[in-house]
Write a structure and sequence with these properties.
Layout: H1 5-11, E1 13-14, H2 16-21, E2 26-33, H3 42-59, H4 68-79, H5 90-97, H6 107-119, E3 123-127, E4 136-139, E5 146-150, E6 153-157, E7 164-168, E8 171-175, E9 180-181, E10 193-200, H7 206-223, E11 228-234, E12 240-242
Parallel strand pairs: 1-4
Antiparallel strand pairs: 2-10, 2-11, 3-10, 4-7, 5-6, 7-8, 8-9, 11-12
Helix pairs in contact: 3-6, 6-7
């Protein structure tokens, strides 16, 4: 059964245990329908090249972790037992690669990676048609399944107890908050309906989070004319902002 994107956004939630860990966390969730997937192209290449230039201006010769938002994410990872030197927040991992060139993956992934780098925030994309039930950000029990690959082979892992993970009814969709996405819901060359998660901690205020979301929506609209977009900011509290 095809998920209704707007209704699906309304069901997304952040568990109180995550709020207790980082009360300053907010997630901006965006759904996009009518996307044009496929391999990297001139449009996505232009976005990545611009993001590489922006990264050089933002960081200069300094390390990525000196940026206040990246530093906050490293603290958040340590708070649930992860070692950011080994499993880096996704935005830091991309910023570290920017001087030598960001990866070219596919046009949809390239678009959101470019926004992640330009706005210095973790940003992930998932295939909405492969989701099972609502998205929830929780602290894992350790029994959940996570579908991934190792050595080119499909494997099933389990998160560490207490690890912060995104999950649906079928299992974990992203481990360690924003470190690694599962294979089941990853974007592919056939993805036409997707959801994007933009992660913010204290140093990135709501205005900057909104600006990043608007930049993503504009890029998706420019790259996929006719796309339909919905958004919702989730805080873990009772209030949320929809758009």
């Amino acid at each position: 059964m095809t998920l209704d994107a707007a209704q699906w956004l309304d069901s997304a939630a952040i568990d109180p245990a995550v709020v207790a860990l980082r009360p300053d966390y907010r997630a901006l969730l965006i759904t996009a329908e009518g996307l044009r997937p496929g391999p990297s192209d001139e449009f996505s290449e232009g976005m990545l090249a611009a993001a590489e230039s922006t990264a050089r201006e933002l960081l200069g010769d300094g390390p990525a972790e000196q940026h206040p938002h990246i530093a906050a994410w490293r603290e958040a990872f340590r708070a649930f037992g992860a070692k950011p030197q080994r499993t880096r927040p996704s935005a830091e991992a991309l910023l570290r690669r920017a001087p030598a060139g960001l990866p070219r993956v596919d046009r949809l992934t390239d678009i959101y990676n470019a926004i992640s780098v330009a706005h210095v925030l973790p940003l992930g994309g998932e295939d909405l048609d492969h989701y099972a039930g609502p998205a929830r950000l929780v602290r894992a029990t350790g029994d959940e399944t996570f579908e991934t690959t190792a050595g080119g082979e499909a494997v099933v892992e389990h998160p560490a107890p207490g690890e912060v993970v995104w999950r649906d009814d079928a299992g974990v969709t992203c481990r360690r908050w924003n470190w690694r996405q599962c294979t089941r819901t990853r974007l592919t060359h056939t993805t036409t309906r997707a959801m994007f998660v933009l992660d913010a901690l204290g140093p990135l205020d709501d205005a900057a989070l909104t600006a990043a979301g608007e930049a993503l929506a504009t890029a998706l609209t420019d790259g996929c004319p006719g796309v339909r977009i919905h958004s919702r900011q989730v805080t873990g509290a009772s209030e949320a902002v929809a758009g």
